[in-house]
Design a protein that fits this description.
- The protein has 370 residues and is of the alpha/beta class.
- The chain has 2 domains: 209 residues, FAD/NAD(P)-binding domain (3-Layer(bba) Sandwich), CATH 3.50.50.60; 116 residues, D-Amino Acid Oxidase, Chain A, domain 2 (2-Layer Sandwich).
- It contains 12 helices and 18 strands.
- The strands form 4 sheets. The protein has a 7-stranded mixed beta sheet, sandwiched between helices.
- The protein is globular and about 65 Å long.
- The N and C termini lie far apart (53 Å).
């Protein structure tokens, strides 16, 4: 399968990675992205395990390591700021190919710059309609003229437009797992400068991350689905976070003030995306659009690996149907354990009770602490 046109929705992590590998298999990729440009920062994500050889083969690994965050340890503190446990971060433990933690925007920019010479990128635009037949997919855009493509791939995240248009409404596939998360950049560097600092109260977590010269804050809290929640309403997000953390100790009051003033606040439900199939006809899903876990930073690693798996299958199989089946069969093996472990990860990060917090801290200090 060569010289076919492929439209990719989303220029985050999965989209540019897929465009790079498709071009190397002889395809003509076009990437459409709703945002006007790529962010230069973002909350930290990990490139680890099977994503490391993908990055190395793309030639971006030196750049990713240069952009790595300054976090070398994780500290747990109580309401007075007293350290109760400290754990060395995996990326600081060395090894032949240690994982890399870096701002998501830096990862996305590195992947985009590696792919842009071999792909067309359409920023500040989005897909409006998809109509497929036996020979291709007719696409209309919000701004660009209508076009026809051989294949369409939705790599457009948790709130995927491609999934909604082709597979059905979001509520059919996206399940709130009982947590919400907010992240934002802070004014100035972290203190201490190399520690990810965690502070818990029952059902709530505040984390301060040193980033790379500029600190980041994260708020993760337990809550049932919030009626009327709109993932694009920033003013609503600020109210929700402030109400959830009202009365909390440590540095929380000053951090909430920064939430209220923030111009770059991310807030969303922690959700799981599950579909019985990731492809319909000539349209398929990739990354969080197909199988979001949205916790513990595994999304970027899985997106990169899934993109290469999909491109390789399309390049080697005799037709798109066989390629989509192969991609899904291979990649679900990596995705399934991560989805099963979301509840366990949530229990470690955000214990429900004071006893749970105490038990988690004691376990960390005894088994992992230094």
């Amino acid at each position: 399968m060569t010289s076919q046109s492929v439209l990719i929705s989303g220029a985050g992590v999965a989209g540019p990675t897929l465009a790079y590998w498709l071009a190397r298999h002889g395809f003509q990729p076009t990437v459409v992205e709703r945002s006007q440009d790529l962010r230069s920062s973002g909350n930290p994500v990990d490139v680890r395990g099977p994503a490391i050889p993908v990055a190395e083969e793309m030639g971006v690994m030196p750049r990713l390591r240069a952009a790595a965050t300054q976090a070398t340890a994780m500290s747990v503190v109580d309401a007075t700021g007293r350290q109760v446990a400290r754990i060395k971060m995996p990326a600081a433990r060395g090894g032949d190919k240690p994982e890399v933690e870096l701002p998501r925007g830096d990862l996305a920019n590195a992947l985009y710059e590696t792919a842009r010479d071999d792909a067309e990128f359409l920023f500040d635009d989005t897909i409006v309609t998809l109509r497929q037949d036996a020979d291709g997919v007719d696409v209309t855009f919000g701004r660009a003229a209508p076009r026809r493509f051989d294949l369409v791939i939705g790599a457009d995240g948790l709130h995927s437009t491609v999934r909604r248009l082709e597979f059905g409404p979001e509520n059919d596939f996206v399940t709130h797992v009982g947590l919400y998360v907010a992240t934002l950049p802070l004014d100035g560097p972290a203190d201490p400068p190399h520690d990810l600092v965690l502070y818990n109260t029952p059902g709530k977590l505040v984390a301060l991350h040193p980033g790379r010269g500029r600190a980041w804050a994260a708020f993760i809290f337990r809550s049932p689905a919030i009626p009327g929640f709109d993932h694009r309403d920033t003013d609503q997000h600020k109210r929700i976070v402030a109400e959830a953390y009202a009365g909390a100790g440590w540095r929380v009051p000053e951090l909430i003030e920064q939430v209220r003033k923030a111009e770059d606040l991310y807030f969303d439900s922690v959700s799981s995306v599950r579909l019985t199939t990731w492809a319909r006809g000539r349209i398929a899903l990739l990354g969080d659009a197909a199988s979001c876990m949205s916790l513990l930073g595994d999304g970027s690693t899985l997106a990169m690996v899934g993109a290469r798996t999909l491109a390789r299958a399309l390049g080697e199989e005799s037709g798109h149907a066989a390629a989509f089946r192969r991609y899904e069969a291979e990649h679900r093996i990596l995705v399934a354990p991560k989805q099963r472990n979301v509840g366990r990860a949530a229990g470690l990060l955000v214990p429900k009770t004071r006893l749970g917090i105490t038990t988690r801290n004691l376990t960390a200090r005894v088994l992992l602490g230094r």
